[in-house]
Amino acid sequence: MLFWQPYTEHFRVPEPDGSSYTRDVLALPIFKQEDSSLPPESETKNPPFQYVLCAATSPAVKLHDETLTYLNQGQSYEVRMLDNRKPEELPELNNKMVKSIVRVVFHDRRLQYTEHQQLEGWKWNRPGDRLLDIDIPMSVGIVEPKTHPSQLNAAEFLWDMNKRTSVFVQVHCISTEFTPRKHGGEKGVPFRIQFDTFAQGDCGEYTEHLHSASCQIKVFKPKGADRKQKTDREKMEKRSPQEKEKYQPSYDTTILSETRLEPIIEDAGDHELKKSSKRTLPADCGDSLAKRGSCSPWPDAYVSPNQAATPSFTSTPLSTYTTSSVPDSDSSSPNHQADPGSHGTSEVSLHSSHLYELVEKQLSPTASIQDAQKWLLKNRFSSYTRLFSHFSGSDLLKLTRDDLVQICGPADGIRLFNALKSRSVRPRLTVYICQESPQESPLLETHATNENGEHSISSSLHVYHALYLEDLTAAELIRKMACVCSLPLGTINQVYRQGPTGIHILLSDQMVYNLPDESCFLISTVKDEVGEGLHLILK
């Protein structure tokens, strides 16, 4: 049975008649670890808050590793919110409310990079469900609990530090749901339960960060955590006393370890200056990243673009940032032909503009960080600009296909890899055309010298132009032919294909659909005898 301690009491200094709960807290390895970079214990400042998860830790964790706690899916677990301040510490918080945001996040750094994609996949498989909930009837001392539909893994509430506060949380996702082809709970991925606490600022919003802490958990199907705990305990009992000394004992409660915060500098894609915000990335205190994953940064949904970051669910949803305005390209294929905006456009200018479009879509190895950000935005990768905020052009081009799939997920990873390698989409149909009349292209005539030394026209050199069709329609083919032949589109009345015995067959969508790939045609222009305009005949 666990008993509450007075709020003025500190767990770092045990009393002679302290309860077993206090002794357990003192014996945890997170309080034993020392770091040479930290100040002496006499100078170390105690954390103002402490969060205690009422669930036993696993006995199968090595001595200097972070504790691991097993939870059952959907079961309510108590988290006690303790005021650990000294009498003279933070007096401005006396008789005031603070806000805490509780989240379940990924422990592995690899999954933290793709958290949005992972959660979207979970939401697709389990519509209407949440990853984290607060059991409001069982909770004590919390005020205004809130959840947001777009943040399925987070909840927030207010609480008074001078009163007993206890929040009951439920985790509905299991560890194996994020492990492909794994069906056993033991092989699931670890999560973290993270608490971020904020004080009320001058503007009345809870924007001043006070404290963050988290612990490592694994979630099993109902009753699965109890079975796993029993299995670990039986395995440890079979070990020798020397081997047992290398492992932590199992504690009745789990203390969330405090984390310090480091600011993140984000590079804006369309600005030369870097803007620093109050968004922070908690880093682990006194332990290596190889053993312990750092706390997750606050989601984009908590950040307002026009003001300081306010970790509140009332700010703009995440979808606003993932679907930000991105200049769409004219076509997904680099073979896209420009629509003739003016009737006098020459073939050379069309070719040069098309070549410029191709070069613009390619990312240069010499591109700066700002250029790489603009390239990501232009190619519809706006949701990954923050992830690649410190990548230059050469850094992005060095990433392999497997790297991008692991970071961005299968769909966006393959799309980004193809965009980086400039892989064009193969056109559905390729047609070669040439104007039959030599008067239309006098520069293409070749001259020969006869016996008397006079120059005469010997033959006309036929040069073909390639048309790449992505839409197999007659209108698409006519538009591209008018562009190449420098003919106003409005002057073309009908287009015919010369068939057997010289008959003229009207060009239709079905005919274009059944044209063989790489077909060759000579274009002959005939004036309309009835009205104005021209007829085109494909021979």
TrEMBL record:
Compositional bias (Basic and acidic residues): 223-247
Subcellular location, record wording: Nucleus
Segments of skewed composition (Low complexity): 310-334
GO cellular component: nucleus
Keyword Metal-binding: no
Keywords: DNA-binding, Nucleus, Phosphoprotein, Transcription, Transcription regulation
Location of the region described as Disordered in the Swiss-Prot/TrEMBL record: 221-253, 308-349
This protein's record includes keyword DNA-binding: yes
Protein name: Upstream-binding protein 1
Annotated gene: ubp1
